[in-house]
Amino acid sequence: MSAKRPLALAFLMVILVSWLFPQTLAEVAQKERERRAQLKGKKAVVITNADLSKLKKKPALETPAGPPAPEAEPIVAPEMKLPDQVGPSEPPAAEASPAPEPAAPDLKTLQERLDKAQEYVELLTLKMGALWQQFYSQEDMTTKDAVQQSIAETYIKLQKAQEEEIQARRDLERHLGEQRKKSGSSVWIR
User: Fold this and answer.
1) How many domains would you assign to the chain?
2) Looking at the domain assignment, is residue 60 inside a domain?
3) Which structural domain, as residue segments, surrounds residue 168?
4) What percent of the chain has pLDDT over 90?
C-alpha cells in the first residue's frame, strides 16, 4: 500500500497542474505561428567557423590597473671641484626643516582602503577562476601556455592584493584600538 501512495500523489499533482494551466495544443501552435510571423521580416545572422577564427580573443575578466607608481626624483651628485678649481667657499645651504608627520588617517579613509582591497581581491579571485576554466577548456597547447602565463601573473597580483588587504585590516584594527584607548574604559571593576 505504501508504494501506491507516491504514485497516487504524483498522478494527483499532474491533474492539478493541468487544471491550473489549461493550455491546449491548438493554443500553443497559435502562439508559435504568431511568434514566427513577427520574425518573418527580420534577417537571421549566421556565424560560421571562419567568422569565429577572425575574432580576437579577449580575457573573460579584466581587472583595472593599480595606481601608477610615484616617480622618484633622480639623485644628482654634487659637482666635484678639482684642487686647482677651488674658489671661495660657498656658505652651506640652509637645512630644510623636517617635514611634518603626516596626519593619521581617519576611520573613514581606513575603511575605504579596506573595502577597496577586499573588492580587488574578489575581482582577482574571479579572474583566477575564469582563467582556470579557460585553461581546462583549451585543447591547443600554445593557447594553454598563454593562459598559464596569465594565471601566473594574476596569482602574483592576487598575493600582493591579499597582503594589502591584510595590512589595511591591521591598520583599521590598530586605529580602532587607539580610539578605544583614548575614550577610556567605561567598565568599572570593584
Assistant:
1) 1
2) no
3) 105-182
4) 14
How many angstroms separate the CA atoms of 107 and 169, rounded? 12
* Alpha-carbon dihedral sign for residues 15, 18, 24, 29: negative
Reduced to 3 states, what is the DSSP secondary structure of residue 73? coil
The reported pTM is: 0.42
Which amino acid belongs to residue 62? E
Q: Is the per-residue pLDDT at 84 higher than 70?
A: no
| pLDDT tens digits along 26-75 | 888 999 999 989 888 888 888 888 888 888 777 777 766 666 655 655 55
Question: Please, which contacts does 61-68 make with residues 24 or more away whose CB atoms are closer than 8 Å?
Answer: 61/123, 61/126, 61/127, 61/130, 62/127, 63/120, 63/123, 63/124, 63/127, 63/154, 63/157
**Cα→Cα distances 28→19, 22, 34, 140, Å:** 16, 11, 10, 45
Using CA atoms, how far apart are residues 57 and 55, in angstroms rounded to an integer? 6
Three cell numbers at 44? Answer: 537571421
